[in-house]
């Protein structure tokens, strides 16, 4: 497994400035194109969930338990994802907005928690757990919205 942080010369920490990362990636890509490892490293580091998985390693990945504060949101999302019903289109949009807002707040929490790395490893693991679910739900709701628009 490649060390994406080392390959892109980035510090091993939870929060990265994705705009600076993109600039660094493009500069390296111009020098080394095509480079599958460089492409993969950029893909991993630009996504907060993937970055945390890479940083924490395979032994500290998210559990199958929905974080307690997201259970109510999950209970609202599950019925909408279990059936395709045109009358649910507005509900899908509302749930997608709620998930996106939670995702954005979680990224703000990650940004703030970055200063305490690596002493706050447990907090970073909890943030990762939230991102796993929020990212999955956002993708599923996006897919459902597409299905309802066809």
Question: Quick recap of the structure?
Answer:
The chain is an all-alpha fold and 150 residues long.
**Count of individual helical segments:** 7
Oligomer: single chain
Indicate the radius of gyration in whole angstroms: 17 Å
Silhouette: globular
The computed structural class is mainly alpha
- Count of DSSP strands: 0
Describe this structure in words.
With 150 residues, this protein is mainly α. It contains seven helices and no strands. The chain has helices spanning 4-7, 18-32, 36-46, 48-56, 71-81, 89-113, 121-149. Helix 6 packs antiparallel against helix 7 (121-149).
List keywords for this structure.
single chain; mainly alpha; 2 domains
List the helices and strands and how they pair.
Blueprint: H1 4-7, H2 18-32, H3 36-46, H4 48-56, H5 71-81, H6 89-113, H7 121-149
Helix pairs in contact: 2-3, 3-4, 4-7, 5-6, 5-7, 6-7
């Amino acid at each position: 497994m490649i060390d994406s942080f080392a390959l892109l010369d980035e510090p091993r920490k939870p929060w990265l400035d994705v705009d600076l990362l993109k600039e660094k990636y493009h500069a390296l890509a111009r020098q080394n194109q095509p480079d599958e490892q460089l492409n993969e490293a950029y893909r991993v580091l630009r996504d907060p969930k993937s970055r945390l998985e890479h940083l924490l390693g395979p032994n500290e990945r998210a559990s199958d338990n929905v974080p307690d504060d997201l259970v109510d949101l999950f209970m609202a999302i599950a019925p909408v994802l279990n059936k395709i019903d045109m009358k649910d289109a507005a509900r899908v949009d509302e749930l997608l907005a709620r998930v996106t807002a939670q995702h954005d707040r979680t990224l703000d929490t990650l940004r703030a928690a970055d200063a305490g790395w690596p002493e706050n490893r447990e907090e970073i693991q909890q943030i990762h757990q939230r991102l796993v679910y929020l990212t999955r739900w956002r993708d599923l709701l996006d897919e459902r919205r597409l299905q309802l628009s066809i």
